[in-house]
Amino acid sequence: MNLRTYLVTTALVASLGLEGCGGDSVLTGTSLQTLSNRADLVSGGAALVEVKLPAKAVASLLKVDVDGTDVSAAFSTLADGRTLGVVKGLKNGSNTVTVKSANGTFSGAQLVITNAPVGGPVILSSQPSPWICATPSPVAASGNTPASNASGLTASATDSCSALTVANSAT
Length: 171
Known about the structure:
Elements: H1 3-15, E1 31-34, E2 42-43, E3 46-52, E4 62-66, E5 69-70, E6 75-77, E7 83-88, E8 93-101, E9 109-116
Parallel strand pairs: 2-9
Antiparallel strand pairs: 1-3, 3-7, 4-5, 4-8, 6-7, 8-9
C-alpha cells in the first residue's frame, strides 16, 4: 500500500468512527438533546432529555448528572432503543447536564439547559406590565390595573401569576 492509499484509508476509517474497533476502544458519538422544548427555553424546573449513545454502547452503563448531582435513575431505555429521562429540580438559569460511561467505553457529552420560572419570563428580560393574573373571584379595576374575571380556580397565583395545579372536580 502506498502512502496516499494509506492516508485516504486512515481518513475514511476515522470519519466512520471505526478507528480501533478492538476491545479497548472508546465509542464516540454520544449526544444529549431536550425534547420538551429547546434547551434555552425550558421553564418550570423540568425537561425531557434524550441521550443518544453510540451503536454498540450499553445504556445501563450511562451516568447522567446535573451540575454534579446524579440523575441517572431518571433515565430508562425504551423498547425502541431510545434512552429518555425527565430531569427535574433544575435551578433558574444555566444547568449543565453531563452524560458519561461508568466504565469509559463510550465518550461523554454535555448540554446546558437554561431554566426559567414557570411563570416566566422565558424570552423577555422582564414581564410586561400590566400583567393580569387569574384569580379565583373577580377583581375590580384599580388605578391602572384593569378588572379581571373569575378564573374558576380554587387557589390564587403564587408568584408572577403561576397558578397552582388544581384537580378537576367535574364528573
